[in-house]
Amino acid sequence: MKISLIIPCYNEELNIQKGVLDKIGNYTKNNDLFLEVIISDDGSNDKTKKIIKEKYLKIFPKFKLLENHHQGKAYAIISGIKNSTGNWVMFSDIDLATPIEEAEKLIKYAKNYQIIIGSRNTHREGAPIIRKIMAKGFIFIRNFLIGLKNIKDTQCGFKLFEKQAALKIINNLKVFGEKRKAKGSSVSAGFDLEFLYLAEKYQFKIKEVPVVWRHVETKNVNFIKDSIETLIDIAKILYYHKINPK
Asked: What local confidence, expressed as pLDDT, does residue 185 receive?
């Protein structure tokens, strides 16, 4: 098992200054399971890429910087998967709301499952009450329209995939595929939904694993705006995969 760890990244200068890449680098540098760490940049226009090039690529040999045009978090992840060399791919949000050490909880299920996803349902530390209420409403709408009733938390930014399974899924995306990229979206939460919808459709073995998660405020997330975008994405998934599956 060789893991390519993918870190989607967009204007993360402030998070980097908090030492998140140091934590990731120190965790992976002597861990033989991790073949590489791909920082998939979504066209940052602050000092993110400069800091990574001048500091982190030099001190952590496993780090690679993948420079993309700004097309959203979903495309940054897809680009990372396509450019990975490991036989497993993992992605983590750069804010480390889920500590990188939680990877061990997912890895231990790799022998029996092809898709292993982190779940925050019992470990949502510090999340605002309005966010928790809206999350429950989102789950109800999601389950009613597109299913995924066997998955409690689709949106945790901490997931592990067998690469061949991931490639089959991303090559068959319709909402977030090559023909209909979600340009400019900073979150692209609907990507997780479409990805897992197809994972169930293709009958890949999926395991949901409770992980530690702490609420981290970030300028790249606007919960109201992102919730509306996600509802629109759910409608698109319903249309392109169920109503008009061409």
From this structure: 44
Residue 19 CA: distances (Å) to CA of 13, 33, 62? 10, 22, 17
Residues 6+ positions from 79 with CB-CB distance below 8 Å: 40, 66, 68
CA nearest neighbour of 48 among 35, 61, 65, 25: 65
Q: How far apart are CA 118 and CA 113, in angstroms?
A: 13
Identify the CA nearest to 93 among candidates 118, 126, 129: 118
For 5-53, the pLDDT digits (tens) are 999 999 999 999 999 999 999 999 999 999 999 999 999 999 999 999 9
- Considering only the C-alpha atoms of the chain, give the largest distance between any 2 of them, rounded to a whole number of Å: 51
Cα–Cα dist 142/150, whole Å: 12
Q: The domain 3-243 is classified under which CATH number: 1.10.3370.10, 3.90.550.10, 3.40.225.10, 3.30.465.10?
A: 3.90.550.10
Cβ neighbour number for residue 168 with a 10 Å cutoff: 15
pLDDT digits (tens, 9 = 90+) for 104-155: 999 999 999 999 999 986 555 555 666 565 566 666 676 667 767 778 888 8
Picking from 84, 91, 76, 53, the residue whose alpha carbon sits closest to that of residue 186 is: 76
